[in-house]
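We close this part of the discussion by returning to an individual protein. The sequence in question and its structure tokens are set out directly beneath this paragraph:
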Amino acid sequence: MIRGMGGDDLLRGNGGADFLYGGDGADTLSGGAGNDWLEGGAGADIVMGGAGADRFVLTAVSDSTAAAQDRFDDFSYAEGDRIDLSAIDANTALTGDQAFRFIGSTAFSGAAGELRATPAGNGLMTVYGDVDGDGVAEVQFLVRASALSGAEFLL
């Protein structure tokens, strides 16, 4: 496990299954070869998986917001990469832990728990998650991909 602190950290894994956690700050995480767990924490992080089936992880809506978006570079569904949002409660109006529902590029309907993705330009997609049903994303991040479907996510 490689853990950053409160500053803007640069964390690099090597071959093998690395666990990288950036903590607070605008961190850069690079997993390298192997099946890595990559969790930026709070702040506008740049996260690169490298070769292998990597897991890009957000555990709270505050990990990536409109004001401090994470960017997941080197994301490859074909290599087994996944975006893990399973620790985030997608509906704060209900007790327990609800999963997001991926709705493609469709606009939010006003129901809590919706997750959508739209092209952002330059080979990036913006992913938005609404946890309270107000039609505004509480969690927001960028993924280097030409398209996204529900299959890329662990919800």
